[in-house]
TrEMBL record:
<dbReference type="InterPro" id="IPR000796">
    <property type="entry name" value="Asp_trans"/>
</dbReference>
<dbReference type="Pfam" id="PF00155">
    <property type="entry name" value="Aminotran_1_2"/>
</dbReference>
<dbReference type="InterPro" id="IPR015421">
    <property type="entry name" value="PyrdxlP-dep_Trfase_major"/>
</dbReference>
<dbReference type="InterPro" id="IPR015422">
    <property type="entry name" value="PyrdxlP-dep_Trfase_small"/>
</dbReference>
<keyword id="KW-0808">Transferase</keyword>
<feature type="domain" description="Aminotransferase class I/classII large">
    <location>
        <begin position="29"/>
        <end position="395"/>
    </location>
</feature>
<dbReference type="GO" id="GO:0006520">
    <property type="term" value="P:amino acid metabolic process"/>
</dbReference>
<dbReference type="InterPro" id="IPR004839">
    <property type="entry name" value="Aminotransferase_I/II_large"/>
</dbReference>
<dbReference type="InterPro" id="IPR015424">
    <property type="entry name" value="PyrdxlP-dep_Trfase"/>
</dbReference>
<dbReference type="GO" id="GO:0004069">
    <property type="term" value="F:L-aspartate:2-oxoglutarate aminotransferase activity"/>
</dbReference>
<dbReference type="GO" id="GO:0030170">
    <property type="term" value="F:pyridoxal phosphate binding"/>
</dbReference>
<comment type="similarity">
    <text>Belongs to the class-I pyridoxal-phosphate-dependent aminotransferase family.</text>
</comment>
<keyword id="KW-0663">Pyridoxal phosphate</keyword>
<protein>
    <recommendedName>
        <fullName>Aspartate aminotransferase</fullName>
        <ecNumber>2.6.1.1</ecNumber>
    </recommendedName>
</protein>
<comment type="subunit">
    <text>Homodimer.</text>
</comment>
<keyword id="KW-0032">Aminotransferase</keyword>
<dbReference type="InterPro" id="IPR004838">
    <property type="entry name" value="NHTrfase_class1_PyrdxlP-BS"/>
</dbReference>
Amino acid sequence: GSRFADVAQAPPDPILGVSEAFRASTDPNKLNLGVGAYRDEQLKPVVLSVVKKAESKIFSRNENKEYLTIEGLDAFRKATVDLLLGAGHPAIKEGRVAVVQSLSGTGSLRVGAAFIARFMKGATVYLSNPTWGNHRNIFGDEGVEWKYYRYFDADTVGLDFKGMTEDLQAAPPGSVVVLHGCAHNPTGIDPTKEQWAAIADLCKERNLMPFFDVAYQGFATGDLDKDAYAPRLFVERGLEIMVAQSYSKNLGLYGERVGALVMVLSDKEAASRCLSQLKRLARALYSNPPTHGARIAAEVVNDKELFEEWKGEMRGMAGRIERVRGELQRSLESKYPAKDWSFITKQIGMFSFTGLTPAQVDNMTNKHAIFMTRDGRISLAGLNSAKVEYLADAIVDSVR
Ligand code: PMP
């Protein structure tokens, strides 16, 4: 027998497991609303036109495949911080931004978690309830203690701002607060500008460390600057922040694993020391990041023409999602007018948090072959106009 006979079977991942179940289904009507990956109106994956153009430029340069430095490609690091703070931001000029290119949003969060485990010993990480499921794994596997702060109010299908601020008020000084930069996953509910300002003040008063997860910049409103409002505001108010950035969604580079862990600090010396330690952590985790995706992102962001074209493609993606949101809401309103469906277009980003219970989700999947996570989240990126009616019928059948 194997020496590993005692190793228990791990449960399937609650999000990626949905795609596995979808692939296994033979139902001709099957619909995958599980994973948050953009699809076009034919429900096919998309490679952005700017990515293809950047790639052909890169190939024509015939670059080698040498290792990058531990911190990654410099042109990429510059592009990424420019995107986050806005080019020419004082923090960049003052050299107080530490940045390591890392393995997309997930790997960047993990480097951040490793930094917290080593240099913020004993700190508790506060996660929104609910949040993207992998946050718990990422901090938990680093041995960092985490707790929830209240976020979603099921009655109003909105933000429980009072609960959120009460919980953060009660957090011990020196705790870390994970905030979704925009397009909160899974609820699609973001704080208002006034609420962001109050959260920033609270972090300052209580000496909490904000850690922004920025996985959807450009995907919420279709505008890169608007979607960076919150982290920029915190920096403006003099807070130090950590940020995990991802190009999976906005540039459609899912499988290329492109992102960065950024720390905006109060002085240059701190940035230099923190960068040295981030490199030390990354060295042991994966040594150095991959080249190809970083070259693509750098090419697109640093080239004026490609940058403008990218913004157009991003507006196109965000616009298609917004359109099917509206269609779904109207279809549900006509099929089941007794219920208030207005939350669907109030939510923003890739997802809608439907409020379906686990039993109702099982009905969606088992009876209608609509695959989605059991928390009731659906990815609108996996929906097209042709399927709106089918989905609305299934939802009505499940909630009635
Ligand atoms: N954070 C959130 C909130 C996400 O939704 C995602 C993608 N599902 C990620 C981080 C990271 O994704 P990736 O590692 O592909 O960048």
